[in-house]
Write a structure and sequence with these properties.
metal-binding; 8-oxo-7,8-dihydroguanosine triphosphate pyrophosphatase activity; NUDIX_hydrolase-like_dom_sf; about 170 residues; eight-stranded mixed β-sheet; 3 helices; Nucleoside Triphosphate Pyrophosphohydrolase; alpha+beta
Length: about 170
C-alpha cells in the first residue's frame, strides 16, 4: 500500500523570468527547482508554501498572491511513498531572493531554464506552467533519473483542477 506525503513547490515570476533555486543539500541535491517542502503538523498547504519560500530564499509572499497552478505526484520504484506536490506561482512578493543554507536562488529567462540540471519531469510539465495552463502530472521513476511512465492533464480552470484534486483524494 502506498502512503501519500504532501509537499509544496513555489515558483516566482517577474516579466519573462522564473526564479529557481539550486538545492545545496538533501533530496534533489545539486538540481535547480522551485522552493518548497513538507507540510508541518497543523499547517495548511498554503501556509507551508509561504513558510518554505521564506526559509529557502528569504522572500515573503501573501497567501492571496499564491496561485495554485498544478499538482504533481511522484512514485519511485520500490518505494512505498507517493510524493503529492502542490505547485504554486506568484508574481507579487516582498524582498530580494538571497542564498540560504538550503538553496542558491537565480532568475532565469524562459529560454534559458537549465532543464539539463533539473528533474527529468520538469521538461514535461514546465511548459504547461510557463504558458499559464493548470495541470496535473503523475510520474513514476526508476532511481532518480529515469522516468518509467507518466501522465499529464491540462485544466481550463482552477475549479476543474480543484475538483480533480478532490476526486483523487477520495480514492
Amino acid at each position: 500500500m502506498l502512503r501519500k506525503k504532501l509537499y509544496t513547490l513555489v515558483f516566482l515570476f517577474e516579466e519573462n523570468n522564473v526564479l529557481l533555486g539550486l538545492k545545496k543539500r538533501g533530496f534533489g541535491y545539486n538540481k535547480w527547482n522551485g522552493f518548497g517542502g513538507k507540510i508541518e503538523q497543523n499547517e495548511s498547504i498554503v501556509e507551508a508554501a509561504v513558510r518554505e519560500l521564506k526559509e529557502e530564499c528569504c522572500v515573503a509572499v501573501k497567501h492571496e498572491n499564491l496561485k495554485n497552478v498544478g499538482r504533481l505526484e511522484f512514485t519511485f520504484e520500490g518505494e512505498p511513498i507517493v510524493m503529492d506536490v502542490r505547485v504554486f506561482s506568484a508574481k507579487v512578493f516582498q524582498g530580494t531572493p538571497r542564498e540560504t543554507e538550503e538553496m542558491t536562488p537565480k532568475w532565469y529567462k524562459y529560454d534559458d531554464i537549465p532543464f539539463d540540471n533539473m528533474w527529468p519531469d520538469d521538461k514535461i510539465w514546465f511548459p504547461y506552467m510557463l504558458s499559464g495552463n493548470l495541470f496535473y502530472g503523475k510520474f513514476n521513476y526508476r532511481g532518480f533519473d529515469t522516468i518509467i511512465s507518466y501522465d499529464i492533464k491540462k485544466f481550463d480552470s482552477v475549479h476543474e483542477l480543484n475538483k480533480y484534486n478532490e476526486d483523487l483524494n477520495t480514492n
